[in-house]
Design goal:
Blueprint: E1 2-8, E2 12-18, E3 23-30, E4 32-33, E5 50-51, E6 64-69, E7 72-73, H1 92-106, H2 113-123
Antiparallel strand pairs: 1-2, 2-3, 3-6, 4-5, 6-7
């Protein structure tokens, strides 16, 4: 459930979501908050809550992610979270097909890096 959605000088446009009695997440520096997102609204995983921006004290476009456990901000990478629900057998083939189609987009390597490095190294003479 959305517990906060608004604007502050430092966070810019932001949304804070309470997931249950233990976990809360925050998303900061949006360019704008999605239509209909306000305190008291229930949201679902995958639903758009805002758009990448650089409002508040941001140095460039991004979304800042914050994570609280029992009201205390913690490092989400160090938390032992409960496992998610497995993909149902009836959707497994479709899941793997979609996963295989999208995976190359997630494995990003700047295309010009190798060429730029080779060109720079090739031009260096001592």
């Amino acid at each position: 459930m959305v517990i906060e959605a608004g604007y502050t000088r430092y966070n810019g446009y932001y949304v804070k979501i309470r997931h249950n009695a233990v976990y809360t997440t925050g998303y900061l520096h949006f360019s704008r908050i999605a239509k209909g997102i306000r305190p008291g609204v229930r949201v679902r995983q995958g639903q758009v809550i805002g758009y990448v921006g650089s409002t508040g004290l941001a140095t460039g476009p991004h979304v800042c992610y914050r994570f609280w456990k029992n009201g205390r901000q913690v490092d989400p990478l160090r938390e032992q979270l409960p496992p998610g629900e497995p993909v149902p057998d009836s959707l497994r083939d479709a899941f793997f097909t979609l996963r295989d189609r999208l995976m190359p987009r997630l494995l990003f390597e700047p295309p010009a890096y190798a060429e730029a490095t080779a060109a720079i190294e090739g031009d260096v003479t001592l």
